[in-house]
Design goal:
single chain, 127 residues, binds zinc ion, mainly alpha
């Protein structure tokens, strides 16, 4: 069961259906993390592409989360991206408010290092 702050729910004047949606988004995130654990993005190219796709989906879930919570939809305040399984980006630095708005990407992280667009095959592209 997801723990949600009753105080924050009241402050944001969320409805019961909003709370239900937030719980659902948490469950989707948990399931996505489970699926990620089954991948081997470090050594398998296909898994790396799937992992990057999941990482993009995770960002969408987090944008949705901000929307339902009635917060500003701002990627700078996302906190799930570096918690995704197989991510090698520094956890403590990325959680530090000092670096807020600046993502610290590890060169070893096969999920976040490099341009995501390069990871996906484009139909009709000459490669
Ligand atoms: Zn990473």
């Amino acid at each position: 069961m997801t723990f949600l702050s009753k105080q924050l729910i009241d402050k944001q004047e969320l409805l019961e259906e909003d709370v239900k949606e937030i719980e659902d988004l948490h469950h989707q995130k948990d399931f996505l993390f489970e699926l990620m654990k089954e991948l081997d993005p470090q050594y398998i190219t296909h898994d790396r592409m799937v992992a990057k796709l999941y990482a993009n989906l995770l960002e969408s879930l987090e944008y949705n989360m901000q929307r339902v919570w009635k917060f500003e939809q701002n990627q700078e305040y996302h906190s799930w991206w570096y918690k995704i399984p197989h991510c090698k980006c520094p956890k403590m630095d990325n959680a530090d408010p000092l670096y807020s708005g600046r993502r610290i990407i590890s060169g070893d992280c096969v999920i976040h290092n490099g341009k995501p667009a390069n990871a996906f095959p484009v139909k009709g592209a000459s490669e």
